[in-house]
């Protein structure tokens, strides 16, 4: 699959702060991507550079092989919607929609009308006087109805309540099914957007930590639950990224795929194995690194019986 956006060795510095540190990645054409990371990881800076709102210190971002700066043809193929989206002081919601309709050649009027009704957007109210939720509703409506070839959503749905966010997710899924295009969802509500995304990019401390298909990423970890001694024995020699002590029981999140022999041993030991949600995995992988997590008997656990590939 070809890339809609290619980022090459991108660096952005703000005085003494490094916002992006030699970032390289691709957003594939026709896929929905999740862009995750802590506040300050570089997500907004990355999207701002791709959409030509901020200039890089070095490196480059290409959209369909072209630099977006001062390139009207490329800019018209992109839409960037962010939390607290700015509009002219006197602009009403209807004015914002009319301007977007004129700028984006593939504007979906029917979808815009649906969202205006479903999200109860007051068309004649000035956007700057709207509540945070109403402002967000205007932004997500423009982002979806624009049907731009590449659309970035930078947390605009945080202002929406749970029901309104569900309206947005359902509208996004239906619109994408009719018209697949490149969409990047940046969000701290990872588990809410996870069912929509095919690929996951995680930025951490201004660098790319993860760039992987969602399914393959989720297969990298498992949560093992049971009596503390048995769980600790299973985990001995493995990379443990999460520990939860529950009285005499222990829940450990371990990295690495589980082999058939692992699963047989876990079954024989009456241990429970669960998948790890995307949000749990991202949180574990971006947690500040210190000494390996320890809980109860884990610190002094003896290795269980070995098997192929380091499994017990």
Strand % is 25-35%
pLDDT < 50 runs, ≥5 residues: 291-312
Q: What is the CATH topology descriptor of the largest domain?
A: Rossmann fold
Count the E strands.
13
CA distance, first residue to last residue: 39 Å
Fold and architecture overview:
By secondary structure, this protein is of the alpha/beta class. It folds into 2 domains: 3-215, P-loop containing nucleotide triphosphate hydrolases (Rossmann fold, 3-Layer(aba) Sandwich), CATH 3.40.50; 219-307, Alpha-Beta Plaits, CATH 3.30.70. The chain has 11 helices and 13 strands. It has helices at 43-50, 72-75, 93-103, 109-118, 132-145, 162-178, 190-193, 214-218, 228-235, 260-268, 278-286; strands at 3-14, 17-28, 32-36, 58-63, 78-82, 150-154, 182-186, 199-204, 207-213, 221-227, 240-246, 249-255, 272-274. A 6-stranded mixed β-sheet has the order 5-6-7-3-8-9, sandwiched between helices. A hairpin with a 2-residue loop joins strand 11 (240-246) and strand 12. Helix 4 runs antiparallel to helix 5 (132-145) and helix 5 (132-145) runs parallel beside helix 6 (162-178). The two termini are 39 Å apart. Mean pLDDT is 90; it is low at 291-312.
For the structure shown, list the relevant keywords.
about 300 residues; Alpha-Beta Plaits; 2 domains; 6-stranded mixed beta sheet; 4-stranded antiparallel beta sheet; disordered C terminus
């Amino acid at each position: 699959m070809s890339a809609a956006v290619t980022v090459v060795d991108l660096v952005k510095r703000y005085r003494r702060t490094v916002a992006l540190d030699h970032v390289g990645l691709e957003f594939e054409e026709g896929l929905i991507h999740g862009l995750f990371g802590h506040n300050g990881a570089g997500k907004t800076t990355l999207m701002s550079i791709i959409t030509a709102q901020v200039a890089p210190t070095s490196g480059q971002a290409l959209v369909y092989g072209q630099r977006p700066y001062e390139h009207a043809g490329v800019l018209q193929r992109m839409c960037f919607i962010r939390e607290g989206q700015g509009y002219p002081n006197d602009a009403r919601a209807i004015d914002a929609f009319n301007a977007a309709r004129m700028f984006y050649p593939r504007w979906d009027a029917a979808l815009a009308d649906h969202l205006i009704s479903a999200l109860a957007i007051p068309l004649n109210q000035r956007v700057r006087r709207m509540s945070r939720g109403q402002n967000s509703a205007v932004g997500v409506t423009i982002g979806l109805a624009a049907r731009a070839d590449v659309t970035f959503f930078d947390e605009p749905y945080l202002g929406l309540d749970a029901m309104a966010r569900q309206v947005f997710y359902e509208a996004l899924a239906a619109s994408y099914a009719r018209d697949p295009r490149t969409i990047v969802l940046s969000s701290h509500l990872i588990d809410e957007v996870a069912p929509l995304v095919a690929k996951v990019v995680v930025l951490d401390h201004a660098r790319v930590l993860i760039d992987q298909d969602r399914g393959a990423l989720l297969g990298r970890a498992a949560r093992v639950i049971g009596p503390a001694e048995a769980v600790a024995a299973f985990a001995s020699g493995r990379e443990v990224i999460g520990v939860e002590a529950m009285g005499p029981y222990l829940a450990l999140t371990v990295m690495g795929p589980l082999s058939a022999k692992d699963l047989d041993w876990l079954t024989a030991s009456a241990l429970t194995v669960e998948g790890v949600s995307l949000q749990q995995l991202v949180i574990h992988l971006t947690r500040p690194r210190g000494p390996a997590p320890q809980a109860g008997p884990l610190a002094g656990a003896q290795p269980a019986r070995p098997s192929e590939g380091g499994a017990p």
